Here is the input.
Amino acid sequence: MIIVPASDADFLAYYGKPPPEIWLGMAAKDGERIVGMGLIVWNENGCAMGFISRKGPVSPFALHRAAKYVLGVLKGVGEPAVYVTCDHEIAKADYWLKRLGFKPMDETPEVWQVTL
Here is the structure.
């Protein structure tokens, strides 16, 4: 398995629809098969929203390295923050988000934020 920058074709193959106009993504590939995607999309307010989806096993170490890479790229281009929701159905999701620097927001604790 490798994690590589995702293309529009990867997005279409994985989600079955065209990507948004502005997005940044990484694809976890097992050979030619995409087993996971990590995305940053910007909402109507210009906030960067992060998502992860898996359809197969993805190395947690590779996932963590890819997340750190994407957060570093976003910081390098001046993105002020990234927002995610913590899926408590995923074991240790909150622990992983804390390791990446995310914190629950006071006003909406289901939404986590990392300031870059």
Observations:
- The CA atoms of residues 12 and 50 lie 18 Å apart.
